[in-house]
Write a structure and sequence with these properties.
By secondary structure, the protein is α/β, with parallel strands linked by helices. The protein is 42% helix and 13% strand.
């Protein structure tokens, strides 16, 4: 089991298994109030969204959300030293085991869920007993190491509660409790008595806790900062006898101040079951009275009433303790968050820098690519390719649906925005949307290692054309010059694996028909995938995310918007009047 001295020397990084906004926010508030530079929680494992917003003081931070631990980068997994598991009881075993397998440097895990199957708790306790990991729970509100770590709801879930508790500075009194509610009462009792908390641990009230009260006492015994322990126990079970035995054997030597709840049970004819699974005394030895006697004989200070704990603690105060205070002002969640731009100190910022700095250090292509990706791109290869694509796609004549719609709308006397919108509204699967669809196909084919012939067979079974393949004019014996021009951007560090895959598809489709060549859309998609992967370090998962948000189609939309606008201006300059088809242009079929 890890020792607290080790925890105090670590830069604790936490992952939350499941999302519990109240607990996570309280942990971030504690981080901020003890003046950490960054939040300790670096990721949330949940489904349904890609990120969650939380307050960092009075401002806001984004915590990334992924559905599986494996989706975190190896660097992130290496950093994580603590886990809070707030998933349901039925998932505790599988998710905790997965965390132990995926996170090589994890040192502490706390399990929040109640009613975790006892066999699951025992299995997890057995697994972690062989590793240098402190596993707390189930039904635990967590661990508090003042000035260093708050893992769970322990200490409070509101920043005002944290400020009032006096838990920003480490003290010399440990708090251990089987009750999550009482652990907070004890923390306040210690600090209001004039002492400070060295650490506080909520064991949880289940019959088989993953860390036992005796193990928690050993944690305190080995902690050089702890001089005494305040312990809240209950009737039921035999944990207190193990503590008494260790004290008698002088394994536990530090002062122990104890309150055992449940004396009232002796007034009932049959043993009552209290709120916790373990809180049931079926024999005299499990009663609160018997435990008090055993602990008293071992030299512990046993309090007959809960309020007596404060009296005992005040007697231990040797000097007035200086308590650090910190507060968080009023705060309100923003309606919109932007990673791209905004005002800062009355100046406009773009991509993390003052607007003019960003503009002056970027050309059009680098600014476009940086804005689309959400960060400043420095790769010359990526920027040059973007520049070429934007120029290449700007206009392919007035024949296509987007340009035609723009022209018709302009000739109807509508304004520029309306005409441009009319053209853009035609962009879709049959016009302009093939770049993104092709990127999706090449990416999936490479990632899943689908043979080219199987890929084509799957498409044939579904019917329809393959996005990125085929051209009305160009064919094998009349190659598209634009394809040759785009090929100059090949030769990437990943061996052009996406371009190679697209070409392997083309090698088969052209045997069926010589115009089923890799077209401009397919080529742009393949080369862009290769550049993003080799030049900017994108993983297949990150590339798939770009596909999902239609990143690849953005190049067509942006570039062709210039062409549509030009067609609008061209029509308004010449003003040929309302567009109307003649009778010869329409054939009526009865």
């Amino acid at each position: 089991m890890i020792e607290l001295t080790d925890l105090r020397t670590m830069d604790m990084k936490v992952v939350s298994l499941g999302s519990h906004p109240g607990i996570i926010q309280a942990m971030l508030d504690y981080d901020f109030l003890i003046k950490k530079q960054q939040p300790s929680v670096i990721a949330i494992i949940a489904s349904g969204r890609k990120s969650e917003r939380y307050f960092w003081g009075e401002s806001e931070v984004i915590i990334p959300v992924v559905s599986r631990l494996e989706q975190l980068s190896s660097a992130q997994r290496e950093k994580i030293t603590a886990v809070i598991n707030v998933q349901s009881a039925r998932r505790v075993l599988s998710s905790t085991k997965q965390a132990l397998e995926c996170l090589p440097n994890v040192k502490i895990i706390t399990v929040f869920a109640e009613q975790t199957p006892e066999t699951h708790s025992l299995e997890l306790a057995h697994i972690t007993s062989k590793r240098d990991v402190l596993l707390i729970g189930p039904s635990s509100v967590g661990l508090l190491v003042p000035g260093y770590l708050k893992l769970g709801a322990i200490g409070g879930t509101q920043h005002k509660q944290l400020s009032a508790a006096g838990i920003f500075d480490a003290g010399d009194t440990a708090v251990v409790s089987t009750s999550g509610g009482i652990v907070n009462e004890l923390i306040h009792t210690v600090t209001r008595s004039g002492l400070g908390v060295s650490f506080a641990l909520a064991i949880g009230g289940d019959r088989f806790p993953m860390v036992t009260p005796a193990e928690a006492m050993l944690l305190a015994e080995h902690d050089s900062q702890t001089e005494r322990v305040v312990f809240f126990g209950e009737l039921g079970g035999s944990d207190e006898y193990e503590i008494a035995k260790l004290r008698e054997e002088r394994v536990l030597t530090k002062e122990l101040i104890v309150y055992i709840a449940g004396t009232v049970a002796e007034l009932f004819e049959t043993p009552p079951q209290f709120g916790h699974a373990k809180a049931l005394a079926e024999t005299y030895d499990e009663s609160a009275a018997a435990k008090k006697i055993a602990l008293s004989k071992s030299g512990a200070v046993v309090c007959e009433e809960f309020a007596n704990i404060a009296t005992v603690l005040r007697e231990r105060v040797q000097h007035e303790r200086v308590v650090t205070t910190a507060t968080i002002g009023e705060r309100q969640k923003s309606i919109i968050t932007s990673h791209l731009s905004g005002d800062k100190n009355d100046d406009v910022y773009l991509l993390g820098r003052e607007l003019l700095q960003t503009v002056e250090s970027n050309g059009v292509a680098s600014l476009v690519l940086s804005m689309l990706l959400g960060f400043q791109v420095e790769s010359k290869r990526a920027i040059d390719f973007t520049d070429y694509v934007l120029r290449l796609l700007v206009d392919h004549g007035p024949y296509v649906s987007g340009a035609l719609n723009t022209i018709v709308t302009a000739r109807a006397g509508k304004d520029m925005v309306s005409s441009l919108a009319a053209g853009l509204l035609t962009v879709g699967p049959r016009f302009g949307g093939a770049i993104n669809a092709a990127a999706d196909n090449w990416l999936r084919g490479v990632v899943f290692e689908t043979p080219a012939h199987q890929f084509i067979e799957d498409f044939s079974l579904k019917g329809g054309i393959i996005p990125g393949i085929g051209h009305k004019k160009y064919r094998l014996d009349l190659p598209d010059p634009r394809i040759q021009a785009l090929m100059q951007f090949g030769g990437n560090k990943n061996n052009d694996r996406y371009l190679y895959y697209a070409r392997s598809i083309e090698a088969i489709t052209t045997t069926k028909k010589n115009n089923l060549i890799l077209n401009v859309d397919g080529m742009i998609a393949a080369v862009m995938l290769d550049i993003l992967e080799s030049e900017l370090g994108y993983t297949p998962e990150q590339l798939q995310e770009l596909v999902d948000i239609e990143f690849f189609n953005a190049f067509f939309v942006l570039s062709r918007s210039i062409g549509f606008t030009a067609h609008y201006l061209d029509q308004r300059r010449h003003d040929e009047g309302l567009f109307r088809l003649s009778d010869k242009d329409v054939r009526y079929l009865e």
